[in-house]
Amino acid sequence: MAIRTKDLIDLEFLSAAEIQEILDTAKPMKEVMGRDIKTVPALRGKTVATLFYENSTRTRLSFELAAKYLSAGTCNISASASSVKKGESLQDTGRTLEAMGTDIIVIRHNMSGAPKLLGEGVKARVINAGDGTHAHPTQALLDMFTIKERKGRIEGLTVTILGDILHSRVARSNIWGLTKLGARVRLCGPPTLMPKEVEKMGAEVFYDIDEALNGADVVNVLRIQLERQEKGLFPTIEEYAKNYAMTEERLKRAKKDVLVQHPGPMNRSIEIPTAVADSAQCSVEEQVTNGVACRMALLYLMCGGENLV
Amino acid sequence: MSKLLLKGGRIVDPAQNIDIIADLLVEDGKIAAVAEAITADAAAEKDVSGLIVAPGLVDIHCHLREPGQERKETIATGTRAAAAGGFTTVMPMPNTSPVADNPAAIMYVKDRAKDTGVVHVYPIGAITKGSNGKELAEMSAMAEVGARAFSDDGRPVASSRMMRLAMEYSLITKLPLIAHEEDLLLVDDGDMNEGYMSTVLGLKGNPKAAEETMIARDIILARLTGARLHVAHVSTKHGAAMIREAKEEGLKITAEVTPHHLTLTEEAVKNYDTNTKVNPPLRTPEDVEALLQALKDGTIDCVATDHAPHTIEDKVIEYHFAANGISGFETALPLLYTRLVKTGKLTLNQLIDSMSAAPARIMNLPAGSLAVGCNADIVVIDPAGEKAVDCEAFYSKGKNTPFDGEVLTGWPVLTVVDGVIVMENGEIKE
């Protein structure tokens, strides 16, 4: 099987079976990553371009390595340093990449909807590596893969996403993916950082962290950005941490074997104290490894799903 | 002089409360007679049986972009688009480059309209200099040379004190202030209606409250000053409710609604189609329903297109960066005819009234009626013929419409300005 749509914009547009397929495919990919020779020829002759309008070492590197392990050619465009400043439109930039033979464009953009716009302008397949506050489907895939690895399942689990939901593309993609696979999703954060009518996406909203953690199987702790405080969305970092930091003490409300996730990079002293970040319950580093595996799976399936050795 | 005889049409003239099958004779640019079986020597005859003959449409809120933004539209192209859409009188907003905030700028628009336009153009002047909200513009001098209202449109006067002074000062002119009601601090750069869709799309929400708090403020200031306030493009249920209450109180308030706010909801934004980006944003089904009710009960007096042409480059771009607005002249009538009249939500009389007599009355324009002696500004509408919207065929330079490809009926087939045919079967007569 392969991905039905030309572009991978968000998990919202994938079926549960498609998501499941990506997660299943990521498993042998992770196995490939563990080999001495980490490359398979699946994408030999294909070219994957990463087009990043936002700084992100982690996601860019993850996609680049995923492509390399599959033997694809890669090129990386840091758009803030080139065409954008010259005023070239997003679709023109995409068509330029395509004209040079790019098969897949992986885009990160600070504007919601940019990958969709790009996809409408090019024949190449587009993968969303995070757009504005809209979606970050590969982050959600790797979060789900990690949950499945640790818990053996996703269906029936209670996953609490904690923090700045309003500005979080990670939260949105996780809500779509997790609910499609049968998990219950809780959202918790201050009301000023909670998007309106988000319950309609199928999640429960909490402002009280203790209630949100009660009996949770997984907690996904989001990064809080200092600029939100500067924009008046909450009074101080101290008060935020007081109400919403994922402390050891609070974690006792959750299930005993609760899994703590964080998309990184972590603010250790703020939303996630070091004691929790470095505990065995926390999967931050595994998530990074699994991110490469999930992106390999996605690239592989988007290129037709053949030649895996 | 020239004569034009329209034979056998259904004459719908809400200003006279007429809906009859009759002939209509135009002589020397005026309506000469409306009666059965008129015969006239040397008149150009048009058989309009089966068609609707109505007063030429009046649009009191549009953007013709000239001077300064001619890549988007010119008075020449904009007025042709208007005529193609059945409009015979339009009022362009002053947010040109430079802003029309002085009598010379108003005269420039009038002169350009006379030289290059094909419909009547009555300019709107700015409320404050440069629409910066700091100092009053020369309203009185602009009124003297023909400005018919004042507005800072997309840059609403933020200072309550300045708006109060503007309202007081406007009393000299007896003309209304047209208010684009938004508290920009509360809008906070929002891209679309705040709610479920903005959450799902990750686009910054623009809450209804940003519009409603400003409507409330301006109603209160209208009470304080006794000024005439015309609320532009009302988009929310509670906004309409406040206007209803203010009218019941007897304040001099009028209001308009756009075709898109009557027919689209925030749902239309779902694929990041930037043609759905408008200001105020598309709202919810509840709002659309309330706006229709408000139009029917007279709370909202009229329809105005807010025709806002943009270049492709202004629109094929990230949603946040895309310009606000819809190129609306050439779809307004068939869109509302198809969606509201054909479905029985609005009578034909109500639609024609809200697009001709009512806006003319608000702005005191010599338009909006087929009474004998009136200017022969006429639109003939085909209630049956189906046609798909084709933005590439627009006379407007702005191809930005979310209705492209939509099959509609109720297209204008003849537009007459001062007794002269300017559009026939979709073609502008040069």
Describe how the helices and strands are arranged.
The complex is a heterodimer of chains A (309) and B (430).
Chain A: H1 16-33, E1 47-52, H2 57-69, E2 73-78, H3 83-86, H4 90-99, E3 104-109, H5 114-121, E4 125-131, H6 137-151, E5 158-162, H7 169-180, E6 184-188, E7 203-206, H8 209-213, E8 218-221, H9 226-230, H10 237-244, H11 248-251, E9 259-261, H12 274-277, H13 284-302
Parallel strand pairs in A: 1-2, 1-3, 3-4, 5-6, 5-8, 6-7, 8-9
Helix pairs in contact in A: 1-6, 1-13, 2-13, 4-5, 6-7, 6-13
Chain B: E1 3-13, E2 18-27, E3 30-35, E4 44-47, E5 52-55, E6 57-62, H1 75-84, E7 87-92, H2 103-116, E8 120-121, H3 139-144, E9 150-151, H4 160-170, E10 177-179, H5 184-187, E11 192-193, H6 196-201, E12 205-206, H7 208-225, E13 229-231, H8 237-249, E14 253-257, H9 259-263, H10 285-296, E15 302-303, H11 312-315, H12 332-341, H13 348-355, H14 357-362, E16 378-382, E17 387-388, E18 407-408, E19 411-417, E20 420-424, E21 427-428
Parallel strand pairs in B: 1-4, 1-5, 6-7, 7-8, 9-10, 10-13, 11-12, 13-14, 14-15
Antiparallel strand pairs in B: 1-2, 2-3, 5-16, 16-19, 17-18, 19-20, 20-21
Helix pairs in contact in B: 4-7, 7-8, 8-10
